[in-house]
User: What shape does this take?
Amino acid sequence: MPFTYILFSSQLDKFYIGSTGSTLDSRLLKHLTDHSGFTAKTKDWKIVYSEEYESIEEAAKRERQIKKWKSRKMIEQLVAGA
Assistant: This one.
């Protein structure tokens, strides 16, 4: 099933929001191994939140919605409510 997920890095003190059509474990493994981009900066990413969807389109739509918030406080509230 597709997912929207939020990762957190203690080292960077940053969140990363993404979506995937694969399992969360396999997607996290990609972020932690042979990967370029923002999450390649450190290898301490942890999944702190996820939502499951029926389609990748729905998961990607939710990812965009969360990113549009541009608010760490709102993301922290979402994660805390999980």
In short: The mean pLDDT is 94. The chain has one domain: 3-80.
